[in-house]
Specification:
The chain is mostly helical and 191 residues long. The protein contains 6 helices and 5 strands; from the N terminus they run H-H-E-E-H-E-H-H-E-E-H.
Length: 191
């Protein structure tokens, strides 16, 4: 009976520690030292939440930089990959359709691989710098940016390029939401 009592007390103690104390402690530390990230890295405009820098959004139209394709249709409540293998007919069909869509929108350029396949979460907010740079002519034309200022648009892409994490983890990348917000500031839409 003594062992059962010890086991029950140990179970209760560790349940309180691991399901209560530890999560509250980590939440508090996150909110104290990383408040922006702990609260979802939300982006506000005129007091309204317009997105998160951690989640991809679907930008429609030629006047915007486009994100990676999303198997979740950019719905954060159904995040996930398509799980289509290389022998899956749907993967090949999606690949061909995305390639055709890219070339229709961006001229007959070869699309970077990140613009042909969805990320594992389906909500990756980043694209490669190459993918952003190849979209510059389309965005410039749609926003009626004269040729002499198109270099400024390319410089804007470079401005929003992020280095690999810790300088060596991953590849350089561009956050599409941040880039499009910077685009709106630097080159507002003509009305």
């Amino acid at each position: 009976m003594k062992h059962v009592s010890i086991a029950i007390r140990g179970f209760i103690f560790w349940t309180v520690v691991t399901a209560g104390v530890y999560p509250l402690l980590m939440t508090g530390i996150g909110a104290l030292f990383f408040p922006q990230k702990a609260h979802g890295s939300l982006v506000l405009r005129d007091g309204k939440v317009i997105g998160s820098t951690l989640l991809a959004q679907d930008f429609q139209g030629d006047a915007w930089f486009h994100p990676r394709p999303s198997a979740a249709k950019y719905d954060p409540t159904s995040s996930g990959a398509s799980n289509e293998g290389y022998t899956n007919a749907d993967l090949k069909k999606n690949y061909e359709q995305r390639k055709a869509d890219w070339q229709k929108a961006n001229g007959n350029t070869i699309p970077p691989v990140d613009m042909l396949y969805a990320s594992g979460s389906g909500l990756d907010p980043h694209i490669s710098p190459e993918a952003a740079e190849l979209q510059v002519p389309r965005v410039a034309a749609a926003r009626h940016i004269p040729g002499d200022k198109a270099g400024q648009l390319l410089a804007l892409v470079k401005q929003y390029e992020e280095a690999p994490q810790l300088g060596f983890l991953g590849e350089p990348r561009v956050n599409v939401l941040r880039l499009n917000l910077g685009l709106d500031e630097a080159f507002p839409m003509q009305k």
